[in-house]
Task: structure prediction
Amino acid sequence: QVQVVESGGGLVQPGGSLRLSCAASGSIFSSYPMGWYRQVPGKQRELVAGITGGGRTNYGDSVKGRFTISRDNDKNMVYLQMNSLKPEDTAIYYCNRMPPYGSFDWGQGTQVTVSS
Result:
């Protein structure tokens, strides 16, 4: 079973940037589409960015033009570069396998707080 560990979150001022990292175990990682999700208390987890095994990307409307997802299959890593951060980007960010595949066990996530 693949395990994922997210890192790179923190406190940043509006307009700032952060780069999140997701380390995944498992030799078949490169076969799967991966996504970055986020969740705030009381709301459902939402998908904000996705990337196929071949590198094709897609983004939610709220982050399009500000966030960039990438992956390094040789290192079993997925990244999320977040620029022009807004207070509404505050959430816990998770990475996981995307549909149509089932999700791996969810990691602890990494907290992103955008505040002045």
Observations:
- DSSP finds no helices and ten strands in the chain.
- The radius of gyration is 13 Å.
- The mean pLDDT is 94.
- Residues 38 and 45 are 6 Å apart (CA to CA).
